[in-house]
């Protein structure tokens, strides 16, 4: 199962010397030799002004999306851009509903001063499509599932997190069956995308 939360669940910042390590997007993100042109619908989303609510989606809401919620919330807070912004996360399946994030996601977030332990997993529901401005999947499978569940009265724009934030379609892999190094890699990918995305707020 792969990867929880809401702005209210992201928790508090822990005292550490350096919350975010220096990171180069090009070193951390998987490169594609000839990226396809940004689709018109995505270009529209990227050109729009500050969204007021964002929902991050992964498979089980225990690995990737809890990290995205926690990292994005912390970056906005540190930059003084968190006023009135709702950051949440959910999963396309409900296998882990009510559970905290994966202990390895909690650990890698804590390593950089972010406490996501209070988050609780939940599943994507129809109401999310009218509550949030943006619903962003971590990979193509997530995005397909979001699209399939999109109701006719949806007001949310949907897309892949990396494509909306960086303009390139780069899947953030599910680290569930990996080790601590995989969670570290995913954290750094999410950090790079979140820093770019934060410029929109």
Protein model, in words:
The chain has one domain (7-27, 37-198): Response regulator (Rossmann fold). The protein is 37% helix and 10% strand. The termini are far apart. Helix 3 crosses helix 8 (180-198) and helix 4 packs across helix 8 (180-198). The protein is an alpha/beta fold and 201 residues long. It has a four-stranded parallel beta sheet with strand order 2-1-3-4. The chain has helices at 25-28, 40-47, 64-78, 103-111, 128-131, 140-149, 161-166, 180-198, and strands at 53-58, 86-91, 134-137, 157-160.
SSE map:
Elements lengths: L24 H4 L11 H8 L5 E6 L5 H15 L7 E6 L11 H9 L16 H4 L2 E4 L2 H10 L7 E4 H6 L13 H19 L3
Parallel strand pairs: 1-2, 1-3, 3-4
Helix pairs in contact: 3-8, 4-8
Tags for this model:
single chain; 201 residues; Rossmann fold; 37% helix; 10% strand
In short:
The chain is of the alpha/beta class and 201 residues long. The chain has 8 helices and 4 strands. It has a single domain (7-27, 37-198), classed as Rossmann fold, CATH 3.40.50.2300.
End-to-end Cα distance: 31 Å
Provide the CATH superfamily. Answer: Response regulator
The whole-angstrom Rg is 15 Å
Number of self-contained structural domains: 1
- Structural class designation: alpha/beta
